[in-house]
Recover the amino acids of this structure.
């Protein structure tokens, strides 16, 4: 499982403050903790309040890379903010993200090719988030086809069915899970499926429980990657166990410990 | 239409383990043996690199083997029971690059030698020959826990490979290897889950992963060879896919298992249809070894020089480009 740690996001108060004050320690601690807990990559998002997202992104990338050596997922709706991070990234980065809109797709696929990165494609467009499974697959197919036409390696493409909070869009959970299953059939080799997990529990009272169950159900449907909080130990233990049940790891009595030794 | 071959790309490499230490590294060996390091399945050199070929170690004893067949005893002549002479013969005459000393003399059936006496044997062999050394206990846990630490101490700095650590008896040996700078053999009973668990337990004691060699335990031809093969293959696939707790080289005790087989030992006069026993046991050892090479064996511990010679030729041929 490709795990992208979600905690370096200016939306969180502590992180937003650290970005504003250029407090390296807060960011580097968060980076280290997430990697130690099993993150394969770290999401980097300046947050909605950033006054100068380009320079904030540069500072974040440099600061994080001083403390850990993992891929960074450059998270912004603005291509120039992503590119500012790409220029400094030392390891194969993740572009987070493009939508299925033609103009955006062209631009970000081009950038992903130029910087040899992974690319996350959200199954949504200007018309908004799909309300059923088929529309999700249609938009994902648009993204996969554009990538293939442009010569971008499909195995570096992550398709995101867009997870919605269960308390406002309860009917969408199953659509997302079924879409994951079908994303894998869109190309050969198959593109990878990813979710931004925490959104499913937004505004609920049992966030960790909902996150955990939704993740495991998605893994059962073939999920390859997730943006999540790796410091949630129960979540990580459940994920490791799910991979064990799916025969992706060889059992041993200390299988939780073994996974973390990677 | 031209057929395009699909090539696997693996995520992980097998750890490289170094056996033996030269003067430069604080030992007295003339050369070292490196095993592991590969990034592909056995002999698929198109899909990855195989920096170190499999090696064969000659098994020698510090006692006279009681149950070896005449065919197996013959090449060693009057060296049997004289470990130093035996070691020298293997190195000088049979051109062994690696020796495996089995300390059977410590066993109650073979003289019940003291730990101190066994440590002397180790010292004498290290003095007499300058090839890297594997040291194996007699198989009695309680005795091995007395003998192996003394031998590890006697060989301090020589970076031997010492075994065997077991799931319920690994701490003493792991601590010794850690203290005296040796590598360890982690033995599991044809069980990949236990193999993995034992590697975790040993590495939790502080021995680094590149100092562990897995003895997956094998069966000879006709005695569970296919089980061993599938376990080794499964472990290797998982290791190359990223499982660090299985990314260790394999050592296989081919001689020990092969020459236990009735088909290897029985005389022609007992089973005329089985043919001449002079060739049969050697063939049994060779066939068992070559199958295990394909399963991923990195170190083969063998007995008969003729079988060793033929298997070495096979290794050379398999690695030809």
């Amino acid at each position: 499982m490709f795990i992208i740690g979600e905690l370096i996001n200016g939306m969180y108060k502590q992180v937003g403050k650290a970005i504003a004050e250029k407090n390296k320690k807060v960011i580097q601690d968060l980076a280290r903790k997430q990697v130690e807990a099993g993150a394969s990559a770290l999401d980097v998002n300046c947050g909605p309040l950033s006054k100068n997202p380009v320079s904030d992104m540069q500072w974040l990338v440099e600061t994080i890379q001083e403390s850990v050596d993992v891929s960074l997922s450059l998270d912004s709706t603005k291509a120039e903010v992503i590119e500012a991070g790409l220029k400094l990234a030392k390891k194969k980065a993740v572009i987070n993200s493009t939508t299925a809109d033609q103009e955006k797709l062209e631009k970000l696929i081009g950038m992903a090719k130029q910087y040899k990165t992974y690319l996350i494609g959200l199954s949504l467009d200007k018309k908004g988030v799909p309300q059923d499974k088929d529309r999700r697959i249609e938009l994902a197919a648009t993204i996969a086809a554009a990538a293939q036409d442009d010569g971008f390696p499909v195995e570096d493409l992550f398709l995101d069915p867009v997870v919605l909070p269960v308390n406002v869009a309860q009917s969408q959970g199953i659509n997302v899970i079924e879409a994951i299953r079908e994303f894998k059939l869109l190309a050969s080799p198959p593109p990878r499926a990813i979710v931004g997990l925490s959104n499913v529990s937004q505004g609920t009272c049992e966030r960790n429980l909902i996150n955990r169950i939704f993740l495991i159900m998605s893994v059962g449907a073939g999920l390859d990657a997730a943006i999540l909080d790796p410091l949630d130990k129960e979540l990580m233990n459940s994920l490791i166990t799910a991979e064990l049940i799916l025969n992706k790891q060889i059992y041993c009595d200390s299988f939780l410990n073994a996974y973390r030794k990677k | 239409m031209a057929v395009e071959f699909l090539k696997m790309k693996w995520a992980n490499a097998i750890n490289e383990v170094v056996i033996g230490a030269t003067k430069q590294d604080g030992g007295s060996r003339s050369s070292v043996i490196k095993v592991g390091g590969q990034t592909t399945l056995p002999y698929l050199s198109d899909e990855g690199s195989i920096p170190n070929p499999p090696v064969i170690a000659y098994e020698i004893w510090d006692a006279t083997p009681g149950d070896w067949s005449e065919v197996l005893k013959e090449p060693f002549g009057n060296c049997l029971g004289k470990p130093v002479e035996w070691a020298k013969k293997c190195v000088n005459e049979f051109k062994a690059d690696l020796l495996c000393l089995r300390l059977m003399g410590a066993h109650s059936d073979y003289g019940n030698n003291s730990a101190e006496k066994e440590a002397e044997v180790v010292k004498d062999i290290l003095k007499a020959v300058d090839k890297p050394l594997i040291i194996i206990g007699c198989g009695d846990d309680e005795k091995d826990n007395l003998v192996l630490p003394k031998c590890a101490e006697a060989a301090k700095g020589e970076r031997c490979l010492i075994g065997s650590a077991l799931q319920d008896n690994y701490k003493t040996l792991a601590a010794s290897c850690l203290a005296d700078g040796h590598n360890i053999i982690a033995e599991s009973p044809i069980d990949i889950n236990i193999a993995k668990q034992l590697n975790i337990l040993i590495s939790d004691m502080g021995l680094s992963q590149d100092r562990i060699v897995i003895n997956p335990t094998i069966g000879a031809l006709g005695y569970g060879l296919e089980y061993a093969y599938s376990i080794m293959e499964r472990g290797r696939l998982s290791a190359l896919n990223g499982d660090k707790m299985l990314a260790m080289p394999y050592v296989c005790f081919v001689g020990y298992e092969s020459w236990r087989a009735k088909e290897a030992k029985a005389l022609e006069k007992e089973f005329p249809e089985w043919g001449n026993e002079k060739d049969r046991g050697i063939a049994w050892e060779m066939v068992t070894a070559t199958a295990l090479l394909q399963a991923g064996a990195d170190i083969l511990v063998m007995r008969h020089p003729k079988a060793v010679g033929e298997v070495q030729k096979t290794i050379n041929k398999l690695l030809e480009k």
